[in-house]
Amino acid sequence: MERKILHLSLPSFPLQVMVADRRKFRDRPAALAGADTASARVLSLNPRAFGEGLRRGMTLAEALRRCAALSVFTPRPDLFSRAHQQLRELLGRYSPVVEPGRSSFYLDLTGTSLLLGPGPDAAAKILREMDSSMSLVSSAGLAASKLVGTAASSLASAPGLAAVLAEEEAVFLRPFPLRKILGKEPWLAERLEELGFRFVSDLQGLSRSELTSAFGKDGLRLHLISRGIDHSPVVPSESFPELDEGESLAEASNDLELLRLTLWRLSERLGRRLRERRTSAGLLRLLVVYRDGAFVVRRLAFKKPTALDRELNEAGLKLLAGAFSRRVQLIYLGLRASRLTSGFQPDLFGGQEAKSRLYTAIDRIRLRYGDSAIRFGIEPCPA
Predict the structure, then answer these.
(1) Averaged pLDDT, 199-228
(2) CATH value of 1-166 in 3.20.20.150, 3.30.70.270, 2.70.50.60, 1.10.8.640
(3) Which of 38, 137, 167, 246 has its CA at a distance of 20 to 30 angstroms from the CA of residue 214?
């Protein structure tokens, strides 16, 4: 059966989410940047703003001088995270195998023609539903592999679809720059360029043995890439499960006590979700976003996977101490639990540690009487 892999690339996805939340700005130049500070950098632009001569990385003050009508949005990672999850659920209705990225997705449409029609028709349906239900536009590439599908989507305007026929992969890839095809391996592309190989067609002129002789273990892979051969599977998100909790601050702040309280709330919510799934986290990631749009990511691996609020919070505080290194105020804190493993069994009368039994009991009481039934001393008393 011929493989059909669809690659969706959403330009400026975080900004699209913000603009979609405020539809009246869809047809105006818009940018994602830090909060109300002239020194903030532009993080993302919509096509209208790009057409006005604005570019990523310029200061917000310069962008506003060039385009007075620019609508500026502050990063909202929590909103982006919800939209990302909603989009994953939407795409899951078209294929049981969806591999999510930050601003792109792969769908394996192999064997879905009886239900969805030919591949191009299915892709067109997906693009239309993304626009109608979420106000999101995407470029799409349809091919027999992830490699060629990704290359095809780079040629399609958003919204738009580029499809590559079977057996035409090598011809299709001939004019592509190797820097584009090897985007995740810039060191290899640079090495090839130094030797005079700039385009895929340059590699296609060499045999497999010649490439292997010249590039060793990378030679065979370059031979396959140059001919559009890529058997890598679409890996669904369940293969690398993660849980996220995040919170945007009501006002930008660097008040350490406020940040600690916010981190505690995130730890509580994350711990509860882990225990509900009877799983534990082996790795914790902290995301800190400053009001100028800059962000810092810190990670900590647990010696023993955990699903306990206090252990998650203690790890989060250590990460915050390392990430909180600027005088600029913060606008967002986020926690992500990954390397999830089964192992937290919420059996109140089992042979668990005392802490595990305690949190199991707390979860049950809160489930029956509400979240405010039990509160920890770190939390302020309700008014």
Answers:
(1) 88
(2) 3.30.70.270
(3) 167
